[in-house]
Structures are given as structure tokens and as C-alpha cells.
Amino acid sequence: MQQPYQHEESASGPTRILVVDDDPTVAEVVAGYLDRAGYVVDRADDGPTALDRAAAHWPDLVVLDLMLPGMDGLEVCRRMRGQGPVPVIMLTARGDEDDRILGLEVGADDYVTKPFSPRELVLRVESVLRRSRPATPGARLGAAGLTVDPAARRAAKNDTELALTLREFDLLSYFLRYPGRAFSREDLMREVWGWDFGDLSTVTVHVRRLRGKVEDDPARPRLIQTVWGVGYRFDPTGSTGEESGS
Predict the structure, then answer these.
(1) Which one, of 77, 82, 79, lies nearest residue 92 by Cα?
(2) In whole angstroms, what is the distance from residue 51 CA to residue 198 CA?
(3) What does the pLDDT look like over 120-176, one tens digit per residue?
(4) Cis link prior to 115 (omega < 30° from 0)?
(5) By mean pLDDT, which of 15-19, 33-37, 107-111, 193-197 is the weakest?
């Protein structure tokens, strides 16, 4: 995978967050709260400027408005992900489920619906960043040709590295840690996302995206199976289960 742009302080300096929103009031409030929380904040009010800011100083996380003028947040997310992995929290102006699912489909790690509490957003930022940092050294996980190195945050299928988002990596790691066990979407949201409540479609979308990367035939998944009335189960034997494409 192509490596992201690097800035000199990326390894040991303060955490840098790029806030992209064309509403100056929202951007100022968000930037203010993040600044007080100890983050270095860059701001952009449109897609091209956001990409320029990222090229100059690659961010540790992006807070990205979906409804930007011209180049929208989905395209900005796609282009940034084309340069390298970066956690993204998408801001949506409406409670429309299609907006949220579109953001998750292009790889957003989380989303917040406007109007929102800036304190809640800071907590979401901290949660996503915490999960994106390298884990303490631990045993590698593996089954059915899939391997995960939690410390290096690398995953592979048949020795070919997988390009996974933050949440996809965490989800795969969790499944590999508990093979053969069925989990509800609520279980996965709590254990993988760290949320006690939220929109369960988030889990559904991430399972679908993960299947697209680890299954030989995502339309007929054999590893990540749907367990009717429960949720999902990782079956390292790849046997035919109760699954469907949901």
C-alpha cells in the first residue's frame, strides 16, 4: 500500500487532527474543544483544501463533514484513503440512514449526526484514536489463511496484506480471538466499538465490508456467517452455515 504523507512529528509529537467543515461556526467550536483537549488542530472548509492540508501535515485523525460544497466528504475520504490509512469520523447534517451508511461504506470509522455535543465528539475522537494506536505486544492471531498482528496492526490473507480500516481490523481481530462463538450486533458494538448504545447498522456495514476483503465469495460468505436471530459467527472451518449476505 502506498504510504501516507509524513510530517516530522508524526512519530512522537502531539496528535494532529484535521477538521473539515464549511460551516465556520461548527469548525470553530469543534477546533476549540479539540484544542483544549490537547490536540493540534488543522482546519479546512472544502475538499481540495483538506487534501492540501493533509499533504502538508498528515493527520492522525480527520473529522470530516459529509456535505461539503463541490467535492463532498465521501470523495475526500476516498482520496485520503488512497494515500494511506487514517481514521475518519464523518459529520452528517441529517439523521438520514443512507448518509451514515454511505460514509461507513467508504471507510469512515465513526460518524456523528448534527447537531451534536462537542464533548461527545471529543470522546468519540479519543475512542477512535485509542483503538488506532499500536497494541501492546501480544500473540498473533490466525485461522483459515487469515493472520493478524495486533502490535503492528497488520492483517493478511494467504500472506497477502489486507487494506483494512481501523474498525475492520478490530472486528477481524475480535472474530479471530473467539472462533466459533456467535455474537449479537450489540455484543460487537460494545466489544469492538466500545459503545453501550448506537446505530446497529454500523456493525452490519462493517461486517459486509470485511466480508468483501476476507471471503473468497462475499456473496456466499463461509468464514463470517450470519446466525439467524443472534448475529454473526466466525467459522474457521469455512463450513456452510446459516448465513446470508446480511
Answers:
(1) 77
(2) 30
(3) 889 889 888 877 776 555 678 889 899 999 878 889 999 999 988 888 888 999 999
(4) yes
(5) 193-197
- Per DSSP, 9 falls in state T
Beta strands in the chain (DSSP E): 16-20, 40-44, 61-65, 88-92, 110-113, 141-143, 146-149, 154-157, 160-161, 182-184, 224-227, 231-234
Three-state SS at 238: coil
- Amino acid code (one letter) for 20: V
Q: Are 8 and 31 in contact (CB under 8 A)?
A: no
> Residue 6 carries which DSSP code?
-
For residues 6 and 132, what is the distance between their CA atoms, to the nearest angstrom? 17
Q: List the beta strands (DSSP E) in 81-222.
A: 88-92, 110-113, 141-143, 146-149, 154-157, 160-161, 182-184
Let me know: does 47 contact 76? Beta carbons within 8 Å: yes
Classified as helix, coil or strand, 48 is: helix
CA 63 – CA 88 distance, rounded (Å): 6
User: What are residue 71's phi and psi, to 5 degrees?
Assistant: -75, 115
